[in-house]
Amino acid sequence: MNNLKRIIGFSLREIIDIFFWFKVPQGNFKKDGVATVKNFLDKELCDELKNIADKIFEDKSNLSPDSWINEREKETEGKIDTKVKAIFSFEKNSEVLEQFINSNLLQETFEKELGYELVLRNCCLQYDEPDTFTKRSFHTDNNPPPSFKAFIYLTDVDDLINGPFTVIKGTHKKARYLRIKNVIYNLRNNLPTTNMDNFVPEIEETAFCGKKGDLIMSTQTLFHRGNPQHAEKTRYVLIFYFSLKKHGPYPEFNLGKTS
Ligand SMILES: [Fe+2]
């Protein structure tokens, strides 16, 4: 019974989400759920931020007290994304990054694509070592209502073996039925409702390779994954977590704080 109620809730939110996307301006972001901008962040700043992260991982005493580290290996008991570490509230470790965020350039760029106001919840630096065994398969970060992420590569991601962000374009709007089908399967099998790997559309995935400084804006209701062919080179990427302003105010952001 409880599951039935949840399934009805998920289905209703899918219907509301149809209307949400009507209002998004025409363009790639509306159609694909992803848009990119080349050379968004200065390459020297990318190098500087990578160095700051390296120093923190080398010696944790370099970490700002307002910032925290999450290691996926500990959190998932060695099962999923075991080569991923993240420094949340990373801007507390770099004045220049804080200034970049305060300039609002990124948020304004994203809001222009989306046609809705956003709230920045957090900026993290993610460090992904090569991993071809434990990457989480297709998933959403959440099911509707959508949340959004902006990714800025701090290292070149030239090929599939460097672990590009990978999505099935258009699934934010076109895969509602499959999303619900996955949710039902997950509820029955006591799995996270965001796993989307049991029923996947027959559309080829798209890998977003790019150079350091390139920006990718994405809606996280898309079916997506870190590329499982990531066999070479550690990827450093800034990830900005955005939520819709109209659904706020939001509680304090504490993802990954407990580990
Ligand atoms: Fe994700």
Short account of what is shown:
This protein is of the alpha+beta class and 259 residues long. The protein has 8 helices and 10 strands.
Describe the structure.
α1 packs antiparallel against α8 (176-188). A 7-stranded antiparallel sheet has the order 1-8-5-10-4-3-2. It is globular, with a radius of gyration of 18 Å. It starts with a helix and ends in a 15-residue tail after the last strand. By secondary structure, the protein is of the alpha+beta class. The chain has one domain (2-244): q2cbj1_9rhob like domain (Jelly Rolls, Sandwich). It is 31% helix and 22% strand. The mean pLDDT is 95. The site of fe (ii) ion has 3 residues, from loops. Fe (ii) ion binds next to loops.
Give the helix proportion (percent range): 25-40%
- CATH homologous superfamily caption: q2cbj1_9rhob like domain
> Counting H and I runs of at least 4 residues, what is the number of helices?
8
β-strand percent reads 15-25%
DSSP strand count: 10
CATH topology: Jelly Rolls
The figure for the number of domains is 1
Bound chemical compounds: fe (ii) ion
Highest-level CATH class:
Mainly Beta
Structural class: alpha+beta
**Element-by-element helix/strand order:** HHEHEHEHHEEEHHEEEE
Per CATH, the architecture is Sandwich
Instruction: State the strand order across the main sheet.
Output: 1-8-5-10-4-3-2
Q: What separation lies between the terminal Cα atoms?
A: 34 Å
- Radius of gyration based on Cα positions: 18 Å
> What's the main sheet like?
7 strands, antiparallel
